[in-house]
Amino acid sequence: MDRSDLELVVAIRDYGTLAAAALELGVAAPVVTKRLAALEEKIGQRLFQRTTRRVSMTAEGETMCGRAVVLLQDFAALESQLQESRSEPSGLIRLASTFGFGRMWLGPALARFQERHPRTEIQLQLTEQLPDLAAERFDGAIWLWAAKGRQTAHWVSRRLARNQRVLVASPAYLGKHGAVKNLDSLQHHACLIVRENGGDKGITGGPAFDRWQLQRERDKSPVQVRVQGPLASNSGELVRDWCLDGRGIMLRSLWDIAPHLACGELVRVLPGYCMPDADIHWLAPYRPEAPRRIRLLIDFLAAHFSDEPWKKTGRPGQ
Cβ(142)–Cβ(102) under 8 Å? Predict the structure, then answer.
């Protein structure tokens, strides 16, 4: 039994007469009659009862048609997959990401991917609020912490890169106000507070911006410290500029401040502590089989960010 036999029985079932099935298959009616008779003889079962006007399935015919439909769908899926693997990926990819990481690191990476696959089109929406990806028809998001919420139960996630939020200050600030000896002494320093709803916020999942949730790198134990200072903003980039200007201590992602650490404009404060849950993730609505352009993009981003390029030079494209 081959694929043409399966197509034959499904066509007869769907169109109700041998003549109509022959028309659908693009052959003469006697050909269908002969092929059906030969098939029934081969399997030793009668699949259809014939009259001068219609044919009707036997129980064995119903069983065979049910299996034939599944097998033909599998054939079609396999052919589509093989054709796709040979062809250049094409089509629209809609993505969301946070402003800072999206502009500094993701944007250049997506430009490289699109250059490699010129038939793709990429739309990147920068936002500090994680969208409802399925409802707003995004293919995925590149996000800077693990997503929570009811809708995320229907999402898939893949970590693209590790990342830390660390405490930093400028040498000028520390020269004027002294070194930070321990966590308790943070309360006596000017701490620059980021009051964002997303992005590099100074908390993990709550409105208490003056409490930094840290982790001892030595044993991964959690520590909470209350901080204060005269300057706060909902712009992480502005807070970074204040820190560079010697206005205080901030908690910020390595991907954002790596160039400033590399050249000495900023230095780590209490390097034995960092903020957890700062890794970079791919988030997407669940689908049984993602298009090839999406699979290629995920693999490209995972390879691109896996070695944390900001630790090498601190700047994209270098």
Answer: yes
Is the separation of the CB atoms in 99 and 199 below 8 Å? yes
- Please give the DSSP secondary-structure letter assigned to residue 129: S
User: What pLDDT, in 10s, does the model give residues 153-183?
Assistant: 678 889 999 888 999 999 999 999 999 999 9
User: What is the per-residue pLDDT for 201?
Assistant: 41
Cα separation of 196 and 30, whole Å?
Answer: 75
Please state, in angstroms and as integers, the Cα–Cα distance from residue 292 to each residue in 67, 106, 285, following that order.
28, 20, 15
CA-to-CA dists, residue 111 to 102, 241, 294, angstroms: 12, 27, 15
CA distance 25 to 11: 8
CB 230 within 8 A of CB 149: no
Question: pLDDT for 263-284, tens place per residue?
Answer: 999 999 999 999 877 899 999 9
Convert 208-259 into a string of H (helix), E (strand) and C (coil).
Answer: CCCEEEEEECCCCCEEEEECCCCCEECCHHHHHHHHHCCCCEEEEEHHHHHH
Packing angle, helices 29-43 and 3-15, rounded to 10: 120
Sole residue written with tokens 């094409």: 90
Please indicate, yes or no, whether the overall pTM of this predicted structure exceeds 0.70: no
- Kind and range of the H or E run holding 242: helix 236-244
Return the half-sphere exposure (C-beta side, CA atoms, 13 A cut-off) of residue 279. 15
Q: Which residue has the higher pLDDT, 203 or 144?
A: 144
- Do 34 and 70 form a contact (C-beta atoms < 8 A)? no
CA distance 163 to 216: 15
Q: What is the mean pLDDT of the chain?
A: 86
